[in-house]
Write a structure and sequence with these properties.
single chain, 282 residues, alpha/beta, Rossmann fold, 9 strands, 18% strand
Amino acid sequence: MHTRPAATIPPAAKPRSLSGIRWRCAASALLVTAFASLAATAGDWNGYEQRDFVVDGHNCLLVLPKAPAAGKPWIWRTEFFGHEPQGDIALLGKGFHVAYMDMQNLYGAPAALDAMDKFHAQVTKEFGLSQKTVLEGFSRGGLYAFNWAARRPDQVASIYVDAPVCDFKSWPGGKGKGQGSPGDWSNVLKVYGLTEEQALAYKLNPVDNLAPLAKAKIPILSVCGEADKTVPIDENTRVVETRYKALGGEIVVIAKPNCDHHPHSLTDPTPIVEFVLKHTAK
């Protein structure tokens, strides 16, 4: 850091009295306060105040409700913030905070879960949010939601996933009926630190790691398309549904007839909102 030498005020520019100095200081303080206020409230998302910050090198945001509900509940979008936001907007109206941490291209790997731990610690401390969050995973965001819930089941009120990836062998691996994504598969192997052979034998995909969630009695809602060609429902949500029920877990599946991977969510998000409200700790 470079330090500028103290500037010398020319005699003609020096204030003639302490009152002049006080006036200049007061004016400067007002300007600083004004700019600080603008910085704190500059973010606006669908009519709600948005706070932007950084945690562990990741850009993060928190959208504030106009009137927080008791206990300050919150929903945490793990990927694709702002896409099909009708559920999030409706929950803001119910007093929920909406959170997001940018973890693109980490696919729910341990490095992502470590960052999520730090994010959770910060928003619960700095903003006083509930210790239990609602995890919201769209598409590949399902990997983050399920994996973090398995790591921290005591900090999860419920899970809402939408066309979720529940097994990276299905997507991006493309080892089943889905088309897969070779570039993303290569990235998955890299961020997980696995060889192809190790990835195919990996036992901590969501479909294989549901016991911690069932033990904690975490309810799950999955909204997906019956005709999803990218993340086939039979290789992902249906496997979770069968195995979770066998473990005694509660899961609701809303399967949209003749619907592919898109559009996500529901035109009327009422069933999503009602599920979240029902299962949010007071």
